[in-house]
Structures are given as C-alpha cells and as structure tokens.
Amino acid sequence: MRLSLADARALAARAIQLTAADEAEVLVASSATALTRFADNRIHQNVAESDTHVSIRAVLGTRVGVASTNRTDDESLARCAAAALEIARYAPDDPAFPGLPTARRISPVNRVSAATRGFDASRRAAAAAAIIEQSVERGFTAAGTVATSDQAVAIANSHGVDAAMETTDLRATVLSMGDGAGSGWASFLAADADAFSPEALGDQAATTASRAASPTSLDPGSYAVVLAPEAVSDIIDFLGYVGFGAKAFAEGSSFLVSHVGDRVLDERITIRDDALSAETVGLAFDFEGQPKGPTSLISAGIASGPVTDSYYASTLRLPNTGHALPAPNPYGPMALNLEMAAGDAGVMDMIASVKRGVYVSRFHYVNVEDPMKVTLTGMTRDGTFLIEDGRLTNPVRNLRFTQSAVEALSHVLAVGRERTLVGPGEGGATLVPALLLEKWAFTGQTG
Q1: Are residues 374 and 225 in the same domain?
Q2: Same domain, 223 and 142
Q3: How many CA atoms lie within 13 A of 389 on its CB side?
Q4: From CA 17, how far away is CA 20, in angstroms rounded?
C-alpha cells in the first residue's frame, strides 16, 4: 500500500535518527502504479503494484555509503543504516565532497489529480478499448499501454532538509499498424487524467498509419526536415543526457565546455529546465531535497551553463540548481523537465515552405555517436513522409540517420507555436514544439 505523504515524511525522519553517521540523508519513495497493456486489438495484461523504497546515505568525513531497503520497520531500517555506514567506512575518501546540503525553501506545486487517482482498472480498460476502436474501424491492429502512477516522495537529512511531495501522472501509448506496411504512433502524458482523450490518441495513430501505407524509397542525403514533437523530444532529451549536466561539463565531454556565453545554436532556440511549469510532471525538488526552478540552458542560441547538484555546484563554484539524482548514480545531475520555447509557426506553414524535404513523426533506437557534438544515430519510424512543393506526398520507408544535434539546431528555419509534453521515460518529460530544420543527414533505408 502506498504511504501517505505524512507517513513517508515520518519514515524519512525516523530513519535519520537510526543512522549513526557524521551526516545522513534518507530518501523515501512510496508509489502505487498500474498498467494495462494491449496488443492485437485486445487487452492482454493488467497489473498493479505498490512499493515503498528507502535509501539511506551515510557520510563519514568525506567517505560516503548508500544502502536501501523496502522494509520499513525499525529493525530493518536500522540494518539498512548500519549497512550504509559500513560501506562508508570502506569507501575511498573524496576530498571534493562538500557535505550534504542544508535546507532551502521549496516552491509549492500541486501535481496531484483526483481523476488520475480514480483511473482504475475499469477506466484503463475503457480507455484501451476506445484507443483500439480507432484502428479497428480502419481494419488496422493496435498495440500500446495505459498506465498511471501515484507517488509520495520524502527526503530528509541531518542538516534539516525536510522535503515531501505527492505526484500523479497518466501515460498512454499506441502503435497502429495498417495495410501495406503503414504504421502510426501517438503518446500522451499529463498529471491530470481529465486531459486525456483516448479516442483522439487512437485516431492520431490510426490516421498516420493510413497515410503511411505502401512507403517508397528515398535516396540517402541531406534534406530539410519538419520534425514532429516526438522527434524533437529525442533530440532535446539527448542534449540533456550528454550535454546539459555538470558531470559531463566538469569532465570536458559536454558541447557547452568553453562555450558558456557563446552562441552555440540558432537564435530561434531557447531551452530551459523548469520543474515548476504548470505543463509538466514530477517533483519540485531534487533527490537531495533541494528546490528546483527555471534554469536557463540556452537563451536565443547562447549557452548559459549546466545544471548542478550540491557536489558539482561546489566543484565548479556554481549555484546549486537542484538537479541531483538519487545517490549513487553514474550520471551526475540531470535536467528532467526540459522545455523548448515556442515559436510562431504552424506545422502546415512549415511544410508549405519546403520545396523538397522529409516529415518525421518520431525517431527510434537513437544512440550517441559523439557526445561533444551530440552526434546521434538512429532511424525514423511510424510515419515518415516526403515533402514536395510544400505538401506531404509519398510515405517513405524508414530512414537511418547520423546527425549532430548541435549542427542541426544551428540551422533552424522555423519553430512551432504549439508545444507537446512528451515522456522519454519514467521520471522525466520534455515540453517541445515541432521544428523546421534546414538539413538532416539520412544515410540509408532501414530495410
């Protein structure tokens, strides 16, 4: 059973008292999640899970140990605290460790929806049926998910940090597969289930699948592209993964290195991380209990700097932007609520301005080839179309690409005026518009 917010906060405080270290930090994450999965136009899986995870970070001087448990009685907490302390005793000294942070004011944000909490198995089944129906009406096959999450997170430390918050969200996906190798994809993410229209989601995917039937080949080359928000989300997510974090910046592998204050992208591009936005999901504080807020990363193409946590803020002598991940982790601080500023163009206006190019609904299986240039390699999927003389014409077989995101975002022709919240993965979201880019390098077909 998911703990109440008060119980999660009390559990974190209790675990602090049981940790005999110079400094201690406790993270409590208690969640209730549910998932309905469908394929071949029928529901085939329905699962629900509740769990409470407690992670204890013990500090001895500049040595740190972390242990975790999902047992919440005092005896189990004491064993977990002792394990963290024992790990700290054998951990190497880290002279750069600044100690755990002190308490700072956290801006209150309401991320709880009664509608999401009430989106039970019967409502998930009804939503799945409504999504599927849009494909069935066209003679297509649908597969996808409808999932909800209800979470209470509490963080406490021995310096007075006492941060706690509840969140809910609903995520849904659908892949519609039609005749002639046509396929279409659509996804949804929001804190409030009242914003969810399963019929509209199913229609979006099925309509794309219908238009994508019988795709033709396209020669490799560099083409102007109109990227739908799903595709833009992948680019922004990878900028965050390899470029916007302080660890990559400190290690010299970020494209921001030696370029803070310089123009690194097109002036039409403004990117920030904003966990307080009314349009996003997730926590208003990081996993050290430090406040998040709007953090500028790219302003009209000019680099502002990386996101930090307490460790890298001290190391780089920068402000702590509140972007710590749970300790320990190999990534350092990470921007989880990236957003790109909207422009003034409509998608159809973008298409109308292209003599010959490609419309991309989304990317798939994207990986990093060169972190310094954020060179990405992957493929298009579920709705790729040729643009000729300002209109969408033939569907195109999925294309492979290898392209520097930094280079591509340095040649922007238009930015969409509407933005979509996309969830690259659990715990994060990007709020992005469509983009018209001058060139994108396609290297061949996928099959």
Answers
A1: yes
A2: no
A3: 1
A4: 8
